[in-house]
Design brief:
alpha+beta; two-stranded antiparallel sheet; Alpha-Beta Plaits; Pseudouridine synthase; 30% strand; nine-stranded mixed beta sheet; 7 helices
């Protein structure tokens, strides 16, 4: 892991790629704001360019690549990289948001669901598929973010789009919870995979836990919590 505390103001302005481990409940914007504030405070800067490559939902944790200075020009390319996720789907109920942001509904029995049934449907969702994004998402419909209309109870219609699920492995040892590891292309919604799996099994499903472990070759194992990043560069301010 890079010792961020040894970086100079010129290092950040010329460009750095920061591997950040986004905490639970934080938005991606929260993480970017914390990094930007930390750098500005340490070096007494009025402004510095900071941006992220690939949004994570507030209820997800894991790798968020944040670029500073001239490296913000690399963000568009980084968003094209495949992402890898681990987490848990819970069978037997749905939620309007497909995760725990909203309350569960449409409860169904799951005693009849077997590992073989789950893996059969997982195979059908693997590869090149057409996916409908969640209505509780930042996708724009008629110029408005879909989640704004969805939270007001308005009907939102989103069109399916092509994505690639290149890896979809599951652990069914704790049914009705299904643990998974998924590698997917840009723009894939893991929440939508939960919905699709639940519909295929005719029992409903929603996402209860999600962590992004990799973006391309970059791993969450080498990432730093944004609070720890702030402490690191403040504690070593006299060394640079």
């Amino acid at each position: 892991m890079i010792d961020y505390g040894k970086l100079s103001v010129e290092d950040f302005q010329n460009g750095q790629m920061l591997l950040i481990d986004k905490p639970l409940t934080w938005t991606s914007f929260d993480a970017v704001a914390k990094i930007r504030y930390s750098i500005r405070k340490k070096f007494n800067l009025k402004k510095i360019k900071v941006g992220h490559a690939g949004t994570l939902d507030p209820l997800a944790t894991g790798l968020l690549i944040i670029c500073t200075g001239k490296y913000t020009k690399r963000i568009a390319d980084l968003t094209l990289e495949n992402k890898t996720y681990t987490g848990t789907f819970r069978l037997g109920a749905t939620t309007p948001s497909y995760d725990l942001e909203t309350e569960t509904e449409n409860h169904q029995p799951t005693d009849h669901i077997t590992e073989e049934m789950v893996k059969t449907e997982v195979a059908k969702i693997t590869g090149a598929i057409m996916q409908i994004p969640p209505v509780f998402s930042a996708k724009k419909v008629d110029g408005k973010r879909a989640y704004i209309s969805a939270r007001k109870g308005k009907e939102v219609k989103l069109e399916p789009r092509p994505v690639i699920i290149s890896k979809f492995e599951v652990d069914c040892s704790s049914l009705p919870d299904v643990k998974f590891e998924i590698e997917s292309s840009k723009g894939t919604y893991i929440r939508s995979i939960a919905r699709d799996l639940g519909e295929a099994l005719k029992c409903g499903a929603h996402l209860t836990e999600l962590r992004r472990t990799k973006i391309g070759e970059y791993s969450a194992q080498n990432a730093i919590d944004p609070i720890d990043f702030q402490k690191t560069i403040q504690d070593k301010s006299e060394d640079v």
